[in-house]
């Protein structure tokens, strides 16, 4: 029996924040997305693969800030490059600094579809400008989409405050169901500007899923037949699955792609990249500008992050550790007799509980993640985790042991 954590400071700050900020915390970080009363709500510091909450509890951080932390927290080489830029050059000016070109060249060298790029700040910025470019280039309005693409009006699930006309031309399709997409294309194909998809499926609360053989190829064939564009949302897969993105890993190249999260190890930057002719729509026909988009600090961080990733084979390291972790957790799950599934290997480890008519899976899920957080493993019940370069083999062996112990506790509910 492992005790509940001391969360006095977390609870005090949460109460205070309820009075200051609607819901105290934004979106996915709210307590109901974890196990309420069991998880911390405020972190204080982070280093490498670990985080410490405001009550002093230290965790193995397997959520990695929902994806941006690819090497580790407070990576000195990256932070020093950023500090140098602050001290010696500055980063917020009325004109663009030359580092923009250096980063763009690097991205073109790495990512197959990126003949040209534009830098923005968040994943939502990148997917949204992608949709606008696709519409501007094709002069069509309809979009077929699959996956989470951010909080903007055209794609967000919660429809509060959004007039229907802003999303009425956007149709959602099922991942790995080419028939479904073909039918939508038969109906709307000549008006479709783009199909946008997360090339690896990572839906909230459900297993991570790889594309079936022929699925992405089928999408490519459909857009080509109807004169539409294929856009990948690589916000999670970019700089994690492969330095060239999932497109390089899987071999089907889109016309446009959105990247963000891991590219700068936590500094806020994202981009849209694509074929030159399509991206050049941004010269005149499609507008894009924002005060902070050219800010050079995250550009410095991105270049340094990519340099380290290339120099130290960071993604190979993550892949090896992720494969090993997946193998041991799969064995633990098989031995446990608990109806749950491991997916997302090697990059996005996730344990989901198999649904059943009596909804036991809900209780198992809550108990499992309760036990896990008490054992100082920070994972999220409704979202896959991540492995970063600074997670050591011992960290991941410890995580696997804690998973085994937590599943044993779940057995008591069966
Ligand atoms: C696949 C995908 N696309 C887009 C986004 C939106 O990115 P952001 O939260 O940086 O706006 C996310 C964020 O989680 C994402 O996972």
What ligand molecules are bound, each kind once? pyridoxal-5'-phosphate
Question: What is the overall shape?
Answer: globular
Strand content: 5-15%
- Summarize model confidence as the mean pLDDT: 98
Describe it.
The protein is an alpha/beta fold and 414 residues long. It contains 13 helices and 13 strands. Helix 2 packs antiparallel against helix 10, helix 5 runs parallel beside helix 6 and helix 11 packs parallel to helix 13. The longest helix is centred in the last third of the chain and has 23 residues. Bound molecules: pyridoxal-5'-phosphate (PLP). The site of pyridoxal-5'-phosphate has 14 residues, from helix 4.
Secondary-structure blueprint of this entry?
Elements: H1 8-20, E1 43-47, E2 50-53, E3 58-61, H2 76-88, H3 99-110, E4 116-120, H4 123-138, E5 142-146, E6 170-172, H5 178-188, E7 192-197, H6 215-226, E8 229-233, H7 245-250, E9 256-259, E10 270-274, H8 276-279, H9 281-284, H10 297-311, H11 314-336, E11 340-343, E12 350-353, H12 360-374, E13 377-378, H13 393-411
Parallel strand pairs: 3-13, 5-6, 5-7, 7-8, 8-9
Antiparallel strand pairs: 1-2, 2-3, 4-10, 9-10, 11-12
Helix pairs in contact: 2-10, 3-10, 5-6, 11-13, 12-13
């Amino acid at each position: 029996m492992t005790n509940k954590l001391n969360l006095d400071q977390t609870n005090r700050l949460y109460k205070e924040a309820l009075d200051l900020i609607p819901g105290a915390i934004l979106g996915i970080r709210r307590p109901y997305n974890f196990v309420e009363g069991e998880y911390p709500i405020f972190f204080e510091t982070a280093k490498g693969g670990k985080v410490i909450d405001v009550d002093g509890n230290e965790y193995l951080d397997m959520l990695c800030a929902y994806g941006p932390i690819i090497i580790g927290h407070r990576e000195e080489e990256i932070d020093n490059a950023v500090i140098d830029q602050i001290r010696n050059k500055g980063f917020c000016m009325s004109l663009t600094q030359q580092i923009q070109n250096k980063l763009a060249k690097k991205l073109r060298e790495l990512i197959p579809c990126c003949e040209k790029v534009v830098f923005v700040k968040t994943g939502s910025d990148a997917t949204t400008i992608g949709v606008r470019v696709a519409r501007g280039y094709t002069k069509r309005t309809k979009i077929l989409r699959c996956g989470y693409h951010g909080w903007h009006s055209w794609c967000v699930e919660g429809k509060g405050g959004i007039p229907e006309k802003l999303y009425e031309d956007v149709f959602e399709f099922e991942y790995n169901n080419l028939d479904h997409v073909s039918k939508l294309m038969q109906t709307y194909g000549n008006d479709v500007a783009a199909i946008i998809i997360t090339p690896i499926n990572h839906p909230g609360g459900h297993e991570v899923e790889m594309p079936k053989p022929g699925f992405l190829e089928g999408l490519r064939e459909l857009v080509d037949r109807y004169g539409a564009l294929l856009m990948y949302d690589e916000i999670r897969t970019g700089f994690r699955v492969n330095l060239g993105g999932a497109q390089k890993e899987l071999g089907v190249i889109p016309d446009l792609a959105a990247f963000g999260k891991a590219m700068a190890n936590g500094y806020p930057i994202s981009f849209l990249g694509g074929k030159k002719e399509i991206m050049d729509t941004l010269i005149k026909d499609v507008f894009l500008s924002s005060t902070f988009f050219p800010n050079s600090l995250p550009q410095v961080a991105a270049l340094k992050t990519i340099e380290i990733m290339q120099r130290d084979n960071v993604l190979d390291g993550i892949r090896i550790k992720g494969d090993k972790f997946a193998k041991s957790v799969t064995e633990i799950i098989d031995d446990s007799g608990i109806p749950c599934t491991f997916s997302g290997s090697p990059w996005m480890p996730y344990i989901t509980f198999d649904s059943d008519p009596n909804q036991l899976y809900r209780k198992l899920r809550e108990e499992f993640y309760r036990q896990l957080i008490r054992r100082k493993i920070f994972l999220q019940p409704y979202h896959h985790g991540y492995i970063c370069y600074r997670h050591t083999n011992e960290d991941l062996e410890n995580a696997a042991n804690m998973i085994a112990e937590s599943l044993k506790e779940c057995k008591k509910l069966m």
